[in-house]
Write a structure and sequence with these properties.
- This protein is an alpha/beta fold.
- It has one domain: 3-Layer(aba) Sandwich (Alkaline Phosphatase, subunit A), CATH 3.40.720.
- The protein has 15 helices and 17 strands.
- It has helices at residues 7-19, 32-41, 62-75, 108-117, 146-154, 169-172, 191-195, 201-207, 240-245, 256-264, 284-287, 294-305, 320-326, 330-350, 466-477, and strands at residues 27-28, 51-57, 83-84, 92-97, 157-165, 216-220, 250-253, 268-272, 312-318, 356-361, 365-366, 368-370, 402-407, 434-437, 443-444, 448-453, 461-465.
- Mean pLDDT is 93; it is low at 1-25.
- Bound molecules: zinc ion.
- Residues 59, 108, 322, 326, 443 line the site of zinc ion.
């Protein structure tokens, strides 16, 4: 595909792409023989990348990928285990270690920030180095993000897309510097931090210097940008959406039609489609007809940014894989992961692997376990015995194919597991059983997968440290090791 070199060329392209809504998640896997032929024919792409797209599936550990693949195949009416998600078809990959400076198990802040800055930090820290202390304002700990460097040193445009509030930990890791991920609006900033010169995440996004600020930001989080007098959280009276729109060539939009118009006009666009997070896909038909899907936002972002003369860097996060896992909502979590795969498919379709590095990974894992089940069985259902009735575990109760290690579906004090009799375990609002009761399912600390294609993708291999992914992206763009 030729990258359009004028904004007008990409404008028409953008309208067409935003209008095209559906795409299959992916397809059946290649035979082992064909996979070997592909591997033998493969040669590393060593030229510099024009564009880099970083996909973060929040909480998308290996077991989530496996379960999502099976569910996606089953929903497509074919065998799930042998199905391919979009990133299953990418040529390179490996495993990534995800700890923080203070914990074996990372949160999204450190996990995403390690990838975007090359510095591991404390849990809760974003865009700061390993010397930061949680909640202590110390701007000397700030480290530039990959996106800030790409724009300042190479003139790349910057895009951020998330199904969370754009001030949430993972999207903020592209543009913000805070020792506490909760500082999303001025109302969330402790007085001591304000006095020490720290600024909230929303204000950092809008107030960034021209040579560092994102050109496109799509997701939720409107309340962090609006004053309390207009229904938002801000106490400083500022409407940051108006401040964004006041810049030349910039527009604020809040619905799907507005986004399509902004892309068609080639504008710098802040699109905030929900007060906090965009709803789960499973809720969309009744709650969110004008909220774009992750796939639509991905199409719009690439269509808009492809017009940029120096190329672009783009972060796309699927936030609800993690948020639904926390709530034990297994159907919602895996549905969000299928949506993530659709977004990756769109990026693969709209870009050229000769000039665009696509990196797909997770910030951390979740404690999801695949316990058993027959090849044709609904992966959201129960393990069955030879008669087709649920097979009973040693406690005399049926065992779901998928359970959580911890979570709100854990056994209450003094009680065993619920019997599940009469329970529709595939329902969207079903809270999946967990081994140990916890109000929110815990992240898990094992390695997460990474998948890559395009220039520099061959460097994504083996056992990697999370900050190494920053180095791969930096090298792909030929940014020097040290910022000037
Ligand atoms: Zn989480």
């Amino acid at each position: 595909m030729t990258v359009p070199n004028s904004r007008r060329a990409a404008t028409a392209f953008g309208v067409a792409c935003v209008a095209a809504l559906s795409l299959v998640a992916s397809a059946a896997a290649a035979t082992p023989e064909a996979a070997l032929d592909d591997a033998l024919a493969r040669s590393p792409i060593t030229n510099p990348a024009r564009n880099v797209i970083l996909f973060i599936g929040d909480g998308m550990g290996v077991s989530t990928v496996t379960a999502t693949r099976i569910l996606a195949g089953q929903r497509a009416g074919v065998d799930g285990a042998s199905y391919d998600l979009a990133f299953d078809q990418m040529p390179y990959g490996g495993l990534v270690r995800t700890y923080s400076t203070d914990a074996l198990v990372t949160d999204s802040a450190n996990g995403a920030s390690a990838i975007t800055t090359g510095h591991r930090t404390i849990n809760g820290g974003i865009g700061v180095d390993g010397g930061a202390r949680r909640g202590v304002c110390d701007p000397s700990r700030n480290v530039p993000t990959f996106a800030q460097r790409a724009k300042r040193e190479l003139g790349k445009a910057v895009g951020v897309v998330s199904t969370a509030a754009v001030t949430d930990a993972s999207p903020a890791a592209f543009f913000a510097h805070v020792p506490d991920r909760n500082w999303q609006s001025d109302a969330d900033l402790p007085p001591a931090a304000r006095e020490a010169g720290c600024v909230d995440i929303a204000a950092q996004l809008i107030g960034a210097p021209e040579d560092q600020r994102p050109d496109l930001v799509l997701g939720g989080g409107l309340s962090f940008f609006r004053p309390a007098t207009a229904g938002g959280r801000r106490q400083d009276g500022q409407d940051l959406t108006a401040a964004w729109a006041a810049r030349p060539g910039s527009v604020f939009v809040s619905d799907r039609d507005g986004l399509a118009a902004a892309v068609a006009a080639g504008q710098d666009v802040l699109g905030l489609f929900a007060d906090v997070h965009i709803p789960h896909e499973l809720n969309r038909p009744t709650t969110a007809p004008q909220i774009p899907t992750l796939e639509e936002m991905t199409r719009a972002a690439i269509a808009r940014l492809a017009a940029e003369p120096q190329g672009y860097v783009l972060l796309i996060e699927a936030a609800h894989i993690d948020k639904a896992h926390h709530a034990g909502l297994i159907n919602a979590a895996l549905t969000e992961a299928i949506e993530f795969s659709k977004a990756v498919a769109v990026a693969r379709e709209m870009t050229d692997p000769a000039d665009t590095l696509i990196l797909v990974t997770a910030d951390h894992s979740h404690g999801l376990v695949l316990n058993g089940g027959g090849r044709g069985d609904d992966v959201l259902g129960l393990i069955k015995g030879p008669t087709g009735a649920p097979r009973l575990a040693a406690d005399g109760r049926p065992l779901p194919i998928l359970t959580y290690a911890t979570g709100p579906g854990g056994p209450r004090d003094g009680e065993g597991r619920p019997s599940l009799e009469g329970v529709d375990v595939t329902a969207p609002d079903h809270v999946r059983q967990a081994g140990v009761l916890s109000p929110s399912a815990a992240h898990a600390g094992e390695d997460v997968p990474a998948y890559a294609q395009g220039p520099g993708a061959y460097l994504v291999t083996g056992s990697m440290d999370q900050p190494y992914l920053f180095q791969v992206m930096r090298h792909a763009l030929r940014l020097p090791a040290k910022a000037p």
